[in-house]
Write a structure and sequence with these properties.
Shape: elongated
Distance between the termini: 38 Å
Structural class: alpha+beta
CATH topology: Bactericidal permeability-increasing protein, domain 1
Strand content: 35-45%
CATH architecture: Super Roll
Helix content: 10-25%
Number of helices: 5
Number of strands: 7
C-alpha cells in the first residue's frame, strides 16, 4: 500500500540557518563535478546527490548548516481534516505527531538520477527505515468516535522517486542553485511492521488492522505536499552552501 510516510521521512528539517556569505570556496573530495556533455553524466549526478545528502549524515564537517541527517528529530505536527472515507462516510480527524525520530536514511542509496538543465529526477532506496513517534488522534465518523493514544515504532524498506525543478541565484560573487519545486512519489513499501508501545485498545495498530474501520480517511490526513515543502527547504540549505560550479561544470 502506498502510504505517504516518506513525507514523514523526508520531513527532516529541524534545521539551523547558515550565516550570510558563508559557503564552500574549495571543492571537497566528497564532491565530483559532473560534466554537462559527458555520456556518464547521469551516473555522476547520482553519485553527487548521494554524497551531498546521504554521506553527510553528521552534517557538513565543521559547519552547522543543516544538522544531523541520521538520526534526526522532527518538530511536532498537528493536523485537523474534514474528509470523506472511500465509502463516503464524512469524518473529522484530529492528529498530533510528537517526539518524532527517524533512523536509517544514511543507509539509503541513490540508484538512478537524470539531469536535464533545470530539472533533476532521482530514485532513492532505503533498506531499513525506522520511525519512532507519539501519536494522539480523535476520529469522528458520524456517531462513532475513536481515540488513539500511542507510542509507535514503524519499520520498512522504502523505494521512492523525487523530482526537482531548479533555478539559479547569484550571491557573494558565486552562483548557486535553488529548488523552486519538488515532488516526492513512493512507489513501493516492503517489510512494513508496526509495533505499539502503549494500551492496545487505544493503539494505532488496532485501528489500522480492524477490518471494520475504513482506514482510508486516516491515511488521507497526511499531507504529501507538506513533506515536499520541508524537503525542499532542507535541500536549498545545502545548495545555498555549495557553488553550482562544484556540482556541474556548465550549469543552465
Amino acid at each position: 500500500m502506498q502510504i505517504h510516510i516518506l513525507g514523514i521521512v523526508l520531513l527532516a528539517v529541524t534545521l539551523t540557518t547558515a550565516r550570510a556569505g558563508e559557503y564552500l570556496t574549495e571543492k571537497p573530495d566528497a564532491l565530483e563535478t559532473c560534466l554537462k556533455d559527458d555520456e556518464n553524466r547521469d551516473i555522476c549526478t547520482a553519485k553527487t546527490i548521494h554524497n551531498t545528502i546521504i554521506n553527510w549524515a553528521d552534517g557538513i564537517p565543521g559547519k552547522d548548516i543543516f544538522g544531523l541527517t541520521d538520526p534526526f528529530t522532527l518538530d511536532d505536527f498537528n493536523v485537523t481534516r474534514e474528509i470523506s472515507a472511500d465509502d463516503g462516510t464524512p469524518s473529522v480527524i484530529q492528529i498530533q505527531y510528537s517526539n518524532f525520530s527517524v533512523n536509517g536514511l544514511s543507509q539509503g542509496v541513490i540508484t538512478r538520477a537524470r539531469y536535464f538543465d533545470s530539472f533533476i529526477t532521482a530514485t532513492l532506496e532505503i533498506p531499513k527505515l525506522v520511525l519512532n513517534f507519539k501519536l494522539n488522534a480523535t476520529i469522528n465518523e458520524g456517531s462513532k468516535t475513536t481515540e488513539i493514544a500511542d507510542k509507535v515504532q514503524a519499520e520498512m524498506s522504502l523505494f521512492a522517486d523525487f523530482d526537482g525543478y531548479f533555478d539559479k541565484r547569484h550571491r557573494s560573487n558565486a552562483t548557486f542553485w535553488y529548488v523552486k519545486n519538488m515532488r516526492i512519489g513512493i512507489y513501493e513499501v516492503l517489510d512494513f511492521s508496526l509495533q505499539t508501545q502503549t494500551d492496545f485498545d487505544k493503539s494505532m495498530y488496532k485501528y489500522l488492522m480492524d477490518s471494520k474501520n475504513d482506514v482510508s480517511g486516516f491515511l488521507k490526513t497526511w499531507d504529501r505536499h507538506w513533506g515536499e515543502l520541508l524537503l525542499r527547504k532542507r535541500v536549498n540549505k545545502i545548495l545555498n552552501y555549495i557553488p553550482a560550479e562544484f556540482i556541474v561544470d556548465r550549469y543552465f
